Amino acid sequence: MKSKMKTQEEMQFEQDWNDAINQANDYDNKQNANKLKCLEYVKTQVEIGLYNDIIEYIEDCCDISQFEITRVKPNDKDTQTGGFDFLKEVWVNQYRSGGYEGDDFAGWVNVKINEKEFLKFHHSM
Predict the structure, then answer these.
(1) pTM for this predicted structure
(2) Largest CB tally within 10 Å, which of 19, 58, 78, 118?
(3) Closest C-alpha among 125, 120, 124 to residue 54
(4) How far apart are CA 71 and CA 96, in angstroms?
(5) Is 66 helix (H, G, I), strand (E, B) or coil?
(6) In what order do the strands lie in the sheet with 104-112?
(7) C-alpha to C-alpha distance for 81 and 67, rounded to whole angstroms
């Protein structure tokens, strides 16, 4: 059997594909490290019951990223806290709701962690 040699175009495509995968993995790793750093801080600011509710809330969200601790109080008052024992103040600013087939959502979530600070992150689905 004769092995097929790759063309220059095929080799370039493969290299571009690998570069894109590596960039996506780097982005995910940075986002995860930032999330963990923010959650470590949150854990020092809230009671364990509230912390566990925050973790559960985050796990219920789909694609999450861009975690930060902010002192900017959210304007939108679409407060969502159903089903949690300790989590009472969550603001959701959804800029995409419904999409073409009705199941496409994206926006920012702010969780109050003390009188001056919020855990902020992006979610999409």
Answers:
(1) 0.78
(2) 118
(3) 120
(4) 24
(5) strand
(6) 63-70, 118-124, 104-112, 90-98
(7) 19
